[in-house]
Amino acid sequence: PILYSYFRSSCSWRVRIALALKGISYDQVPVSLLKDGGQQFSAEFKEVNPMQQVPALKIDGITLSQSLAIIHYLEDTHPNPRLLPQDPKKKAQVRMIADHIASGIQPLQNQKVLKQMGEKKIEWAQTCIASGFQALEQILQQTAGRYCVGDEVSMADLCLAPQVANAERFKVEMGPYPTITRINKALLELEAFKVSHPSRQPDTPAELRA
């Protein structure tokens, strides 16, 4: 497999965690979202992903984009360890939390949107993340065990940790979100989350390396 990734992309990090958890070795092709005006806009990368976004994963003779679609494919083809519970209610909760982050928070504060916001970009990102986290904290108080849904790592957790990293980067005050903070701390202790962390990627700048 070949993963097209950017060290700081939270969507790429979700996929790196999934690959690490499932023990799938892969080659990484860094795609800088900043260098050369954004390498994702190159004609070469547009051939890989017409949406000109990371991540993209070449695997089993196909190329997949969209982090959750990639994770679903990895779940179907490498079912252990499970990232979606078998219980229908828990499975729905995992998908709900993953979608809440992947559709309801992350796209509002991604680089493309922030560019449009100009000088107000930090304020905008903080507002979007805080609004999403208020709802997420309330949801997690109902669903969480050690992790987002019960005591097993799931697709929801793969979305949570990268989003908390975004929140910290934009200096969002995390005090109001004790459940999110507690789960994130537990996740960052896991080896799969450590090896896939933005501070430990081939394209991580020296000053940001762990």
What is the CATH topology classification name of the largest domain?
Glutathione S-transferase Yfyf (Class Pi), Chain A, domain 2
**Largest sheet, spatial ordering of strands:** 2-1-3-4
Strand content: 5-15%
Overall 3D form: globular
CATH class of the largest domain: Mainly Alpha
- Average per-residue pLDDT, rounded, comes to 97
Total beta strand runs: 4
State the secondary-structure class: alpha+beta
Q: Between the first and last Cα atoms, what is the distance in angstroms?
A: 25 Å
Parts with pLDDT < 50 across at least 5 consecutive residues: none
For the biggest sheet, the summary is: 4 strands, mixed
Q: What is the chain-wise order of helices and strands?
A: EHEHEEHHHHHHH
- Number of helices, counting only DSSP H or I runs of 4 residues or more: 9
Percent range of helical residues: 40-55%
- State Rg: 16 Å
Q: What is the total number of structural domains?
A: 2
From the 3D coordinates, which CATH architecture of the largest domain would you assign? Up-down Bundle
Keywords: Cytoplasm, Isomerase, Phenylalanine catabolism, Transferase, Tyrosine catabolism
EC number: 2.5.1.18, 5.2.1.2
InterPro entries: Glutathione-S-Trfase_C-like, Glutathione-S-Trfase_C_sf, Glutathione_S-Trfase, Glutathione_S-Trfase_N, GST_C, GST_Zeta, GST_Zeta_C, GST_Zeta_N
Family: Belongs to the GST superfamily. Zeta family.
